[in-house]
Structures
1.
Amino acid sequence: MIETWLTRTLGIDLPILGAPMGGRAGGELAGAVSRAGGLGMLGAARYTTPEWIAAESAVVRDTGLPFGVGLMTWSLGESAQHAALLDAAIEAKPALISLSFGDPAPYVEKIHAAGVPVLSQINTIEDLRIVEAAGVDAVAAQGTEAGGHTGRIGTLPLLQEVLEATNLPVLAAGGIGTGRGLAAVIAAGAEGAIVGTALLASPETTGPDYARDRLIAAGSADTVYTSVFDQARNQPWPTRWGGRALTNAFTRKYHNSDAGHAMLSGAYDPADPDLGVVYAGEAAGLVTESLPAAQVVERMAAQAEVLLRRFR
Ligand SMILES: Cc1cc2nc3c(=O)[nH]c(=O)nc-3n(C[C@H](O)[C@H](O)[C@H](O)COP(=O)(O)O)c2cc1C
């Protein structure tokens, strides 16, 4: 067993968080990760609803196991409707709330008042100072290899920089797709890993079938860091965060083009794998089959344990 701050604090067996992935991680995936001994997390996208959070947390709560909810910090301040997502997350009584992409200061006290610890994924050392000042309980260094929205610094350089710069517990996110990656970040001093892409071919994920199939077919070079899908889908992400997605006909045509919103939204088609988005990270090359999420998590932890034992 790999015991870390993460496993002790959450009372879980494995130092693995199932990534909060908007549009892909609901109660079924979160429940499978928690059943395997990690902590499954619901991904509450900007466009989701309080009702979705309530319904999906009811699914995972049926396992009787702890789970987490992840929200997009920058979008919570957009309107009362967006702020209501945080209230729904707190009402779901999660073991952890993750507030990523933005300054969590306005929200941390409210979450702590409910007795829930707060984690923030960060992309730069400046982000570390912001979330430390906000009073979060832990940070995750999220590298540019990660699927979905992320920053521009690689996981290992960022992780080393953050570990040197803080006394907070630090997790790693981005590119961790097997026990080798998990062992590497734990040996470096991380308390655990947030794993997203490695779970995305699993049957418990939501989203179109083609998303699982395309991921299995993709190699590690088949991703692009882009904001064309945000523009096409009218998602007003601050420009510092792009999203890592699988390349397809849409990205080949429009990434780095000067096409405006009207053209991008006209061309975007979520029903068509060549014109829709599949957010996924560089760990895509490590995903070669559709395995139940529990198997992915258990296998990763077991391999890391063997590797870490080599040095005892
Ligand atoms: C499809 C997808 C959706 C994501 N949505 C969110 C999200 O809603 N909130 C969030 O904090 N992170 C989100 N992320 C980022 C993950 O939390 C995590 O940092 C990432 O998956 C880790 O890197 P990996 O994909 O290489 O495992 C998403 C990632 C993916 C792949």
2.
Amino acid sequence: MAFAWTNDLATGNAKIDTEHKELIDIIGQLIAACQSGKGREEMLRTVQFLEQYTVRHFANEEALQRQYNYPDLQNHLQYHAQFRETVKNIAQRLHTDGASVQLLAEINTKVAMWFTQHIRMQDTKVAAHLKQNGVI
Ligand SMILES: [Fe+2]
């Protein structure tokens, strides 16, 4: 099944949505590459991207939450920290053991599915809070 951006993932905040699309796109490319037998090379590229992305995107999102006193900030910081750990763990294993079906499965569940779930459950709440404060 293709993994791609759908409108139900929109939080309504332009900056957050643009950054979310970047991650959805790169995971979609990885899944497409795996389906055409080019998964191994693509996995390295994707995981390198994820390591940088989690730092950059989460920092941006957290800065907005701080700036506008998002009430659930502490929990949200923890969700992000856990996800960064997941990505770090996957990256380490990719470097030591190489690409595997097991790692791909983890990217699918612990990264792709986690992320879409997080957008739906958490980031939509952040965007609603920002909107209440006049940020679109
Ligand atoms: Fe978030």
